[in-house]
Amino acid sequence: MFALVESGSITKYFAGNKGVTIGDTQYPKSIFTLWSESDRNAIGIYTVTVNETNKKDEQWYVNTDITYSFANNKVTGSYGTATAKAHADTLWTQADSDNGFLPSDKEVGDVKTEGLKTLKKINIKQQAASLLAPTDWYVVKAAEVSDYSVPSNITTFRAAVRTKSNEMETAIDNVADVDALKTLYTYTEQEDGSVTRPLGEFPVLEN
Prior knowledge:
Elements: E1 2-6, E2 9-14, E3 20-22, E4 25-27, H1 37-42, E5 45-51, E6 61-62, E7 66-71, E8 74-79, E9 83-84, E10 90-91, H2 94-98, E11 111-113, H3 116-132, H4 136-144, H5 152-173, H6 178-184, E12 188-189, E13 195-196
Parallel strand pairs: 5-8
Antiparallel strand pairs: 1-2, 1-5, 3-4, 6-9, 7-8, 10-11, 12-13
Helix pairs in contact: 3-5
């Protein structure tokens, strides 16, 4: 990305994929690839450098729009301070009801917007369900065929999936903020060389 600077102020931005007109002069798009930075600067065009110091993982934070500035002969784009997404659910309040914002199918105290913890727990439930689905037929067969029983390794696996799902959801419930929730999902290398996360992993079916 490039910017045109005139009289010390940024007046236009370019993707660099086509020619540009500055004043009465038409320049070909090759100036963005063949010209040196100093040659482009001489006609007022600067490469935009984006400072991502304040940019955070959008899974957990809402980043600001980029703001651009010209200083010290450089054009820089910068992010403002990121805002953590809500980790807890937002509920419909009495004030919402008094102001006429409460939907007809909702009551005060109902969930207005699901927070990250709820969304993550929904995802855990979905993962658990997808792990259990391939072995559901064992359970169905055992219920329908009197002389058939679910193999012990299947029973053990299914119980372990449910136990781990509950443990994960409890861990998510217990976090106090977004940073703590993020930590649950962050993989780090351990002393033995393994790479794990505090949330842990679902079990694998042993044959």
